[in-house]
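Anyone? Bumping this.
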Amino acid sequence: MDLAVVVLLQVIAAVASLVLISIGLAVIFGMMRVINLAHGEFIMLGAYAVIYATRWGVNLWVAMLVVAPIVVGLIGVVVERTVIRFLYGRMIDTMLATWGLSLLLIGAATMIFGNVTAGVSAPLGGVTIGEYQTSLYELVIVAIVTAVVLALMAVLRFTQAGLIARATMQNPAMAASLGIDTSKVYAVTFGAGAALSGLAGALISPLSGVVPTMGVAYVAKAFITVISGGAAIITGTLSASTLLGSLNTLATFVATPVIGEVTLLFAAIVLLRILPQGITGKFFRRAL
Amino acid sequence: MSSMLERRKVLKAAVAGAATAATGPWFIKDLYAADEIKIAGIHDASGGLDLLGRPMIDVLTMAVEEANAAGGLLGKQIKLINYDAQSNIQYYTQYATQAATKDKVAVVHAGITSASREAIRPVLKRFNTLYFYNTLYEGGVCDRNCFCTGSTPAQTVEKLIPYAMKKFNGKKIYVLAADYNYGQITSKWVKKYTQDDGGSIVAIDFFPLDVTDFGPTIKKIQAAKPDIIMSVLVGGSHISFYRQWAASGMKKQIPMASTTFGLGNEHVVVSPEEGNGILASYAYFHEVASPANTEFIKRYQKRFGDKAAPLTEVAAMTWHGFQLWAQGVKKAGTVDRMKVIEALEGGMSYEGPAGKSTIDSATHHDILDVYIGEAENKKFKLLQSFSQQKPADTAAVCDLKKNPNDNQQYIIDVKV
Amino acid sequence: MNAPAATTRTTRVEPIIETRGLVMRFGGVEVLRGIDFGIAPGELRCLVGPNGAGKSTFFKCLTGQYHPSGGEIRFKDKAIGGLPSVEIARRGIGIKTQVPSLYDGLSAREHIWLAVKRRIANTGGLLKEVPIAVDEVMESMGIAHLADRTVGQLAHGQRQMVELSMVIGAQPDLILLDEPAAGMTHDEVERLAALVMRLRGTCSLIVVEHDMQFIRMIARQVTVLHQGQVLMEDDVETVLRDRRVRDVYLGKREVV
Amino acid sequence: MTRRASMAASLVGFGVSVAAIFLLPSVLELFTLINATIYVSMAILALSLALIWGYGGILCFGQAAFFGLGGYTYAVAAINFGDSTWAVVLAMVVPALFAALLGYFMFWGRIGDVYLGVITLTMTLIFFKLFNATAGDAYKIGKAALGGFNGIPSTPPLNLPWDVGSPLAPEDIWYIAASLLVLLYFGSRWLLRTSFGRVVVSIRENERRSELLGYDVRRYKLGIFTIGGAMAGISGILFANCVFVSPTMFSLFYSAQVIIWVTVGGIGTLLGPIIGAIALQMIVAKLGTLEVIDPNVVLGSILLLFVLLVPKGLLPLMQSGFDRLRRPKAPVPVEPAIRPTATPAARRPEPVSAPVGSAPATNTLGGS
């Protein structure tokens, strides 16, 4: 019984971490039809932001929840202004350009931070569930991810900024004729997506080693999750993460971490074959 | 490409003519190569294995510097070429080829993981270049061109398992191992010695070197309820395990021993709460209190200052490996590969920071002093030592005296 | 008006293509609302109607680009509704789309080659016949002088001719022309009309066109589509005189 | 260029490359020659993607999958057979078969542009993970242990056909690799001139049109995809011979690099990607030894700058520059001189989608 609860918690944690690493990419893809292959490096920069902020004496939670998103968000705006905006409407080209950016950032990080593994210790201790112990920090991540998703939903649905953003993404020409500064909307959206990636990196940093190349491990997974989810940002990411994350964790329990990963990847391939537009291309089409 | 070659030739000629070789660009050094002995080091100074690699490079550099300061070898200066394989096996092959065919070095000290060793061993054998592998590993390499100076399971794991079972008063062991030849074979030894000592293995889980998420594994371990965790994990990513293990609160519940913890200074990287109490066994610890070691560490810290990391077996054995080779060259009076091998096979021995290492001529492995230590506040507390342990595992399968042309790594058939 | 057309007319010939109750829905919007339509082999039919009447959607259903939501399409007495485009093309329907659909990076000759090669391969002919046939088509269509030009660089009228040549070069049994005269000069329109007249009899044609001059030049029978249904069907003069037609369609355009 | 001029250019190119193949071993030192062999084998990989992506319009992020399969098949077969002859054949057949299977799965499922990219990428990752996890004793194919992370370092080198006693020296492998590159390059040119090749190109230009003409687009895509897979397998064999076989062959690193080479060299050309592959490898190798700047920075900047400033790639840029030089002397053509550079639509295989809703703005309103 306790084991079932623990497994369930583990599944929830895995789904949350998949949402966490994908949501920044999903915002940028869903809103702008741009696939940002430098997403993994935004995660990496978020993690480094935490490492350096804590070294300079910033409180760990402040570093994770405030410093990292702001730093990476600003980097995102700069990237949008200097690269992405020249490539709107050219999806493949943006993929290639952001891939170049990804390599550039890995190289730059290697030169600046060194190709060595840094890390911070996980805050908080364990909690006891019956006979089992689990990490409290994992549960905190679940809570933060839930909060982020709810906030994102609220922003998109209920605020003026969200409406402007959605309008611009739906029909830029129309939005422009209504007096909306579309290029500003794009920049802010890209920045917001980057900030979410930065947050992801920050929250991951206590759990895994921080190296310049760490993003590579996440970008493919995030990419696959977002595409499997389809165009709807939140519903798509949630549904794909739930499906893929659960399969991954259960397979890991039954077999090995490798089989878990492979199960996730196979599931994504089969899913895309059945639903070439992703989950929300078929279901929940009107969702956010 | 040919134009580059052209330019190089022209430059060579120009510099030779002007006789200003000393200030010439780096690629002209071939010209006065005859005055020096070139050796190569190939280690990971970056990437996931940098924690292990950098002290090895530092120590090798220091060994060459000290040798040169003392007048060099056979009256010639030694030139060390350090390659950074960036934790990428492909670079190992590439640099080994380069060291052998382009630099034409006298010896290559190289390799951290067993994967990297098995990648370069055939290359150096093919190009007739002597090879020293200075890392502890799973045993079984039988190759006359290769000397393995690090410890093997028969020297360390055999001592560690009964010690841990007694200290932790438990018999059920859960093994976590890196998923490549080192982890695969070492976990077999762990199983063998556990069973020899009356214990049992609950499970063996393998993890690729890039795995960082151990959440499900930690839950699995809890469900299996072992008495002891045995970690055969390797490299930067796997450090996450120690962190996540402590964060889940399990560290207080189940004690841990390891064949690798501390080897890459994991005990310094993680916090004391995460690392304290983990048992490990090596042929060298930074904390070894011999005069030779104290003196050695003093010189090392003087040379590298702030950069000086605590030294571990891989660094110490790199030192021993270089010294053994240098002694072999002196005895042979030449850097000629076969003559040096023959000199080394004459029971060559060196007494240094890690105590006495003697080359076992039948296996090309070392007879070593071995210690068991416990991590305590980013250091190791030495609990017990065992002097002059033989590489019994490899000796059981390899006899280069009888079969000098043998060239393989025996996967020792562990009876379990 | 809702009676199956054409077949009830003078001859009792089996129609080469026929639709019954053809319906096409997009989400909640019904663009085709039960179209009954048919033409006899060798017939040339013009299809007119205001913007949004469903003409291009109708063509897309006939060529398998859309899968009809309901109703039936029969071609040469076989049901083809919902078959993939390739299959329909192979059974002998060719289309010149409204926006010229060409290979901008290829030469005109390569365009015709692709069409002729498909036809000859389909009929089991020898590949070495292809180049000769390609030259013939270009000669007869009057585009031989464009043969080696990259189509992306041609003027609009020339592009129309290349696409038309490609469609004709494939020698389908039924040709659908979606606004072939759009963007052509007066001379080009006249040549086009002559060409269409020449094709009559060798194959069946359905032409969607707004240019009433052009329709008058080529058509006898005209079908009027309005809001996804057949409004009327008659000879060209009758249709053009009809008040309903003027109301829904011609009144909005100053073509006549 | 007229047909005759291009024929002459081909002949000259062929002559120069043959001369280079035979001259290089005598001027280069062994190490450089081995590196040159690696470059050439990677250029074959670039060529395979040039066909699949540049001409077939299939954005494949997983060329490394075929490359790795080729390498592993070769290693496993050569170890088991002892003789490399059938190993070579198998190492082309297996990736080709796999490409055919994957292609069937994708093209018959009507999966397009970005989704093709995701699936091929995912496939590569699966291979990487699986082969990385084969260190255990259980993972043996015949006599060959797959070795997991370790790979198969003791891959036997190529030998003379059916003559195990004559393993080839690094020089011989150079001759083979370089000749293969030349052969495959001219073979690809020939392929694109056949009727199959022309239809493939037409599909890249306008898939819908080819379908409406009655071409079964899926089969042609499958064909070119399979050929590209086999070619990547050949590259894998050569790589296995001059480096060694390990799971890194399936890594994102190779998939990424090959896309960069094709982009930089010029998509829609065959020579461009070859030049791109060789030039960029040389640059990165040079920078790697200088240790001043991280090679990733250079590679990333190059890709970024090319996408932004030279989206058509190096070779088309040079060609149009060349044409512009020649132009004033040639008789002024009658039509307005729009060079292909001005038709960006032809550049990318798939029509690119704009931000939501803005794509088909103009044409759908005109009456349907």
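Late reply, but here is one note on the structure posted above: Chain B touches chain A at residues 45-48, 50-51, 86, 179, 205-208, 210-213, 215-220, 222-223, 236-237, 239-240, 243-244, 246-250, 253, 269-271, 273-274 (CB under 8 Å).
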